[in-house]
Amino acid sequence: MKKYIIKRIAYMLLTLWIVITLTFFLMHSIPGDPLAYMAKTLPEQTRINFYEKYGLDKPVYVQYGIFMKNLITKGDLGESIRYPGRTVTDTISKHATVSGRLGLQAIAVGITIGIVLGVIAALNRNRWPDYLVMFIAILGVTVPLFIIAALLQYTLSVKFKLLPTTGWGKFKHTIIPTIAMCFGSIATYARYMRSNVLEVINQDYILTAQAKGVSPFNVVRKHVLRNAILPAITILGPQIAGIFTGSFVIERIFSIPGLGSYYISSISDRDYTMIIGTTVFYAALFIVSQLVVDLLYGVVDPRIRVSGDN
Amino acid sequence: MRSKKYLALLLVVMLVSILAVGCGSDDTPNTDEPATNGNEEKEEGEKQEGEEVDGTSSATFGLDEEQYLTFVLDAEPSTLDPSKGADNYSNTILLNVMEPLLRLEEDSDNNTAIAAAGAESWEANEDGTVWTFKIRDNTWSDGVKVRAQDYEYGIKRSLDPDTASPYSWIIGDIKNASKVNSGELPVDELGVKALDDETLEITLENPTPYFEQLTYNRTMLPQRQDIVEAQGDKFGTEIETVVFNGPFTLSTWVHNSELILTKNESYWNAEEVLMETVNLKIIQDENARLNSLTNGEIDGSATNRPEWREQFMANEDMVHYEVVNPTTFFMFFNTQDEVFSNANIRKAFSAAVDREELANVIFDGIHTPAYGWVPPTMNIGDDEYRSLVDGPVEKLVKEEDPVELLQKGLEELGMDTDPSKLTVTISLGGTDQWFRTYGEYLQQVFNTKLGVDFQVQQMEWPVFDSNVNKGDFQIGYMSWGADYNDPSNMLNLFRSDAGAIGTGWVNERYDELIDLAGKEMDVAKRLEYFREAEGILLYEDAAVAPIVFPRSNIFRYEYVHNLGINPFSTQGYKNAYTWFREPAN
Amino acid sequence: MENVITQDKFKHIGPDPSMGDELARPRVSYWQDAWRRLKTNKVAMVAIVVLFLILVMTIVGPHINGFKYEVMDPTKVNGKPNSTHWFGTDELGRDIFSRVWQAGRSSMIIGLVGAFISTVVGSIYGAFAAYKGGKIDNIMMRIVEVLTSIPYLIVVIIISIVIDSRGIGTLILTLTLTGWCGMARLVRGQMLQLKQQEFIMAAQALGVSPWKIIRKHLIPNSLSVVIVAITFDIPGYIFAESFLSYLGLGPQPPATSWGALASAAQQKFIFYPYQLFFPALMIALTMLSFTLLGDGLRDALDPKLRQ
Predict the structure, then answer these.
(1) Regarding the domain delimited by A94-269, which CATH topology (the fold level of the hierarchy) does it fall under?
(2) Which CATH number fits domain B327-549: 3.10.105.10, 3.40.50.1000, 3.30.9.10, 3.30.70.260?
(3) Chain B partners of C159 at a C-beta cutoff of 8 Å?
């Protein structure tokens, strides 16, 4: 097991390096530069000084060398070009915390509701509560997020003035964004739970429990749920990366200072250091979560338990 | 809501009548004319407040006891380092927390005039090349006295090539500025010198008629050498890394979310600043901004969306201001391109656009058709340039037939004179819905009017920017906003060595005229130079085709007063106050 | 020695039709059974009908009421739905009914072609990786990880510059470029399970070529999972396109899509709710139908739920 994990970590670093390298050369190959945001064509000298200051005058492979050296020796992702003086690491940690808080809240709500709906649907398989519950569960993901978010904002805060339209800092600011964001998890978990419960419910040990006279509620609670939820944990893995990288749409519509907007804005600003920084962050989270999922599979399903030589 | 409004109205009537009895004078502030002599009104208000015995008297004047405002920034300010960054958002903040040498103050008619700020007086020598500023007694927020050396250091740092300021070019008129900026001369050779703690002397390359207009640019703001050097690269990134000497200090800065300005008690003119707190929320999404305005979560915002405009105009609690921006939206031609090297073809494309119709269809009649290059609101001397000079495109549209011009141009080039065989592409530097609609409209116009095969290419702004720099385009479209209030700011862009707008256009006479105007202090003569130059640019050579001058529609709740609307004004929030704000729920 | 079997000990009784009932049930293939079970699922059947109707409308819809989807009419800007313009008109006076179906055509093409490409590429890639196993599998899966980690927008921008177009084809290419990775993972996982089963080992032992094993055994056995995944992939692509449209990177005019219509209308839905309603309704119906159909298919195709 230990050997396996070490091996996987080595692969992770290799993958990460390839991602960084590819992204580095790709982003420098798209036209435009970090001065474009000024929307003015600048005098040559201004551009020369600016390029020199941020090392953009050097050939791309030299810039790449400098970047890699700083990253490996100092763990330094550099300084933002668009926001002079701010380090990329600082920016990421500050804004990822915001995204993380909102994301965790949304996922917690989503999982709870999703699991409840999924179990209800499965226990009433192919009867009207099943259809109704699953319809509700799916409804929230049938239209793109930017529509849901805008509709929620308009009804809850403009029409009925229940909650603030935008902002960040207090719990009340997180309510509408959480609602908008949890629909995805609700749909995913409700559907996943439904099929898991259906599978578990036909197992012999459930029949045994029923035969022994365990009350239906306890059968569900002690046997069905426990065995059906475990596999559901494995789909949590890939979502973890998404929690901390935030949602561009939600952050834009509700003016939330999360990390999501940086993924888009750094690219349109050609803020090279920020592009690479956010990419490294996302890729690392993603790859780690892949590893976690693989390990979790082993825990949940002994048949796929990994061995050192696999 | 309704009942509250009536209640407020009743209160106003009661208070005004009390006032009329109590004061018995005609200096009663009138809620209908908030901006009229706002400053004096307040001064009197303050004085009388002082004379009254009990503290509640300020309510007698309707002046809210709690003076706060909430507005919106469209995006995160890049940095508070005056020498770095160039975005409007940090400019806005800097003008409120820093004290420039001079400010453009807005009067009751929304005209701007240069006024003393960080400098209490200033003068130029006879030929206008040496300016002396007497620095006012003012303190930094850490208690240190503001000195002329701070201004000197700020300007020098902005032009230091190591700083790499993206805005340094704007003060290129200072003696040796370009040589210092390119590293040819040491920074010490720059024509800026603190003669003593209170006197700053700035020497210019040439007499520069608009030099006062540059003094409020961020590159000329004062900076404290000790702080800048202690903070290094971190200077300007967070509140703790900067010191302030303006009317406000920045007390909160949550990146990408909110900034809070608090009145600076150590500001030299603090007693005239009524505003205690200004909250600036960062909201990028326009719908969210306007929803917040509808909700009363913010006190004002601007929009050009016709539906929202109508809704807000119908709102009795809001005041509507329509402001012409010192900006020109224009098409520009690549004169190095085979087809657009021909002046007649360029003129044909300029003349073919019905600017009235375009302004109505595309801009909902909000923006005004542009027939000149220099936008309205820009002054020459004390007069608006545009009111003195007719737009040259007007003549072009009236006198010339675009189809004939195109024929003539194609003949001159020795090309097939059948326009349908000519494919022309416009590059648009935006990918959003608006640019889509705009492209579709232009396509229809040129297809039907000139009969050419007109293609639209939308691309991301940085891609467009880079293509234009490389000369890889036929027609481009963009907007240019003036940085300071003088026609030269707009017309200098087309000097053949400026390279500002990638037309590749060179005209010797034009260069000569711009040089003459740059050194001439006589307003009438400058006007004539500019008139001729603009004629060459738009009529004879038609290197660009101005389309519209944009206007903004600003909406504010009526309790917001004396904030100013002139886009050039740099007074910030320091003169603003609120009057009969409904108590917050 | 009396054990002589004579003819008269036997009697011909002829066929007895009544005996037929004793057969447990008729022999049905897996697919027939799946279809039979799907038919009993009313929800899934409704979804199929709805999808069929939408598909037909995207083909004939733009030509029904005589208004071309791209023709502007400045006199009829932002008109409410009425008897001439059934779904109203947009900010340039274009007929929304025609536009919705024209946009649906793009969205459906993006969804169907996108899902098709990612299924083919993903299945082959995933199956190959799983079949080969070991180092090759490992390398192939790292490539998938790399592809999913590269910032997607950079890829979108680069491709639109390289191809110099932002048409539907370019969009499909950019969306599928990394879109197949999910399918590849899924198929690989499925294959890995199948690989260990006895009938594959038997085939290998008999010297069947790897390609034939993949084709004859592995693919058919993982088809049910793939088919279900396709029904989720199609609306997935439609959604991905709508997000790009929201960012302003959607199809270039005059081409349009549901996402482009919806993101344009989202800006002013307070004033013209109908401009948002119709494209949003179409997206929702499509999404809902595919999802419900997918759920139905999963139930129908799952051998464990076979009754």
Answers:
(1) MetI-like fold (1.10.3720)
(2) 3.10.105.10
(3) none
Please list the rounded mean pLDDT of every run of 10 residues in chain B (585 residues). Answer: 44 42 36 35 36 41 83 91 88 92 86 88 89 93 92 93 88 90 91 92 88 90 93 91 93 92 92 92 90 90 88 91 90 91 91 90 88 90 86 88 90 86 89 80 87 87 86 90 87 81 87 87 89 92 92 90 84 86 60
A106 vs A192: CA distance, rounded Å: 18
- Measured CA to CA, the distance from residue B231 to residue B242 in angstroms comes to 8
In whole angstroms, what is the distance from residue A153 CA to residue B285 CA?
12
Residue B364 near chain C (CB below 8 Å): no
In chain A, % of residues over pLDDT 70: 92
CA angle B519-B525-B526, nearest 5°? 55
| Weakest-pLDDT range from A30-39, B281-290, C44-53 | A30-39
- Cβ–Cβ gap C253/B361 under 8 Å: no
The single-letter DSSP state of residue A204 is H
Burial level of B222, CB count in 10 A (0-12/13-18/19+)? buried
Which of B437, B458, B460 is closest, CB to CB, to C92? B437
C-alpha distances (whole Å) from B556 to each of B290, B304, B309, B311, B564 are 11, 14, 12, 13, 11
Q: Do C288 and A264 touch (CB under 8 A)?
A: no
Class of domain C53-69+80-305: mainly alpha
Q: Does C207 touch chain B (CB under 8 A)?
A: no
Cβ–Cβ gap A18/C146 under 8 Å: yes
Torsion of CA C36, C41, C46, C52, to 10 degrees: -30
Q: Would strands B327-333 and B544-549 be described as parallel, antiparallel, or unpaired?
A: antiparallel
State pLDDT tens for residues C81-106: 888 778 888 877 788 888 889 888 88
Nearest to C284 among A11, A143, A290 (CB): A143
Cβ of C150 within 8 Å of Cβ of A279? The answer is yes
In sequence order, the β-bridge partners of residue B454 are: B424
* pLDDT beyond 80 at A225: no
- Domain ranges within chain B, ordered by starting residue: 2-63, 68-316+552-567, 327-549
Instruction: Compute the average pLDDT of residues C277-304.
Output: 83
Cis peptide before B247 (omega within 30 of 0): no
For residues A83 and A54, is the Cβ–Cβ distance under 8 A? no
Specify the pLDDT at position B38.
Answer: 35
Query: Is residue C185 a contact partner of residue C126, using CB atoms and an 8 Å limit?
Result: yes
Integer CA distances (angstroms), A160 to A33, A93, C289, in order: 45, 35, 32
C166: contact with B, CB 8 A cutoff: yes
Going from N- to C-terminal start, the domains of chain A cover: 94-269
Residue C119 has pLDDT above 60, yes or no: yes
Closest CA to B428 of B481, B467, B470: B467
- pLDDT at residue C47 greater than cutoff 70: yes
Residues B53, B50: Cα–Cα separation, whole Å: 8
Nearest CA in chain A to B461: A36
Confidence of residue C39 (pLDDT cuts 50, 70, 90): confident
B68-316+552-567: what CATH class?
A: alpha beta
Report whether pLDDT(C25) > 70. no
The whole-number average pLDDT for the span A122-142 is: 83
> Does A144 contact C243 at a Cβ distance shorter than 8 Å?
yes
B465's tokens: 């920017």
Q: Which residues of C touch B464 (CB under 8 A)?
A: none
Q: What is the mean pLDDT of residues A148-175?
A: 87
The answer to whether the bond into A216 is cis (omega within 30° of 0) is no
Tokens matching residue B99 = 């004290």
Could you give the CA distance from residue A241 to residue B351 in angstroms, rounded to a whole number? 55
